[in-house]
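Hi, here's the filled form for the chain we discussed.

Project: internal
Contact: R.S.
Residues: 243
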Amino acid sequence: MFLLDDREMRDVPGKGKGVFALKDIPAGTLIGDYLGLVISNSEIDEKRQGLYSMTLNEQLAILGDPNEDGIHLINQSCEPNCAMYPLGDHTVYFARRKIFAGEEFTVSYLIGPPDAECNPCTHQCACGALSCRGSLHCSEAELNAFLAFERAELKKQDNFAERFLYEVGKKLEPLASYPKEIADHPIYPIFAAADRPAFELSGKATLEHIRKSMRAEGRRCRVSALDAEIYAVFAQEVRVRYV
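And the returned structure, exactly as it came back:
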């Protein structure tokens, strides 16, 4: 389910369809809730269903319908502009940085390392990002870090009695209400829009200031003293390209 209307589906070379913003979207904006049919994990059949399932808990998953409108249609990217966040047993997507009008919404699928069944692996990534790893799989360290963050966030939430209102074979219902935005957290890397001009950083080039500025601007950050542009910010480092 999308929680914003200013979007449209377009053809994306090499990826089929994609979801695009029709206006600028501020950082933190809630994009939508991952809704669909509640199924047991044993019912997941990627070859038949495609990559449209989302974990609900240790036993259950949510299966999105590719013929229905929803955030399950958002494509994967190794440099995503959206991110997942847990609200009870629901998973919502939000804008991890400013998203520009005409830009495709993307998210990291956070598929863990390949297992024995992934042979030969069919999870190739075609996002075309500067740091594309060529695979939908993330590292074990990246997955474990997000799962730990998820557990910590859920412990803070004490107002989601609705989280138990679901049945196998029925659709997960929307929450009664949603926050207006999701706060930033270092667990989410900030990747600048690749096709937008850089902005000049004002003030001290601290990691915190760079992150806050790039999240709001959505663009590469130019640091004159380094003669370089920062295109990604992580929890404890930045990635630069020299100009």
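Let me know if anything looks off before we file it.
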